[in-house]
Specification:
- The protein has 221 residues and is α+β, with helices and mostly antiparallel strands.
- It is built from six helices and twelve strands.
- The protein has an eight-stranded mixed sheet with strand order 4-1-7-6-10-9-8-12. Strands 2-3 form a two-stranded antiparallel ribbon. It has a two-stranded antiparallel sheet with strand order 5-11.
């Protein structure tokens, strides 16, 4: 398993959301990139030096510090959509090789290179910026149906990473909740929501609160 590319965003206008800019246009960079925990959501900070988010309400912070997507899944989309999809085009910070990102367990840990350790926190949920960026009508529905969302990660140990670094799985938790399963439960298959609580110790606390609130239903019901 290998880190194929490290991708940093280039700020550009965002006509698809009521924010001025977006960092979804990510491009591979050469050389080492510093990785560190960005702190709480709300500042725009993410885990990779030189990158940031602009929709600070919905993106960034420790639980969404880094976003990873598999090159193999990009290749599948490339064939289906009939267009070239370069590394970083889905807004991912890390494009991987040889790793089943969507089959990763919530809470599992990856070591990249000699220093950095990241932990899977959950799936990416598509938004209007993503659809507008790809310029595909119905893209959110299509992406959701495929259940290949890629994974958000938090920074357990910082350091430096670079394209070509070895990627090693160093911990898998004792449950069966994968990134893809979590995505399906949060989007098109809410009947699966109760099973997400099997991973409650590894999911972000705020996400667990939302899941429990959805399971409880309307107040007073």
């Amino acid at each position: 398993m290998q880190l194929r590319s490290v991708n940093i965003g280039r700020p550009r206008p965002n006509p698809w959301k009521p924010v001025d800019l977006t960092g979804i246009d990510k491009r591979p960079v050469t050389g080492p990139v510093a990785v560190a925990a960005p702190g709480p959501k709300g500042t725009g900070a993410v885990g990779l030096a030189g990158d940031r988010v602009f929709d600070v309400k919905h993106h960034g912070g420790d639980d969404q510090a880094v976003y990873a997507y598999a090159r193999e899944d990009l290749d599948g989309w490339q064939q289906e959509l009939g267009r070239e999809l370069p590394d970083g085009v889905f807004g991912e910070n890390l494009t991987t090789l040889g790793l089943d990102v969507n089959g990763a367990l919530i809470g599992e840990r990856w070591r990249i290179g000699e220093q950095v350790v990241l932990q899977v926190t959950g799936p990416r949920v598509p938004c209007g910026t993503f659809q507008g960026w790809l310029d595909r009508a119905g893209w959110i529905k299509r992406f959701t149906g495929a259940a290949l969302p890629g994974a958000y990660l938090r920074v357990v140990r910082g350091g430096e990473i670079a394209a070509g670094d070895r990627l090693e799985l160093v911990h898998r938790p004792d449950h069966e909740v994968t990134v893809a399963f979590c995505f399906r439960a949060l989007t098109a298959e809410p009947d699966l929501l109760p099973r997400l609580l099997d991973a409650h110790e590894d999911l972000p606390a705020r996400e667990v609160e939302k899941i429990r609130a959805r399971l409880a239903g309307p107040r007073g019901a």
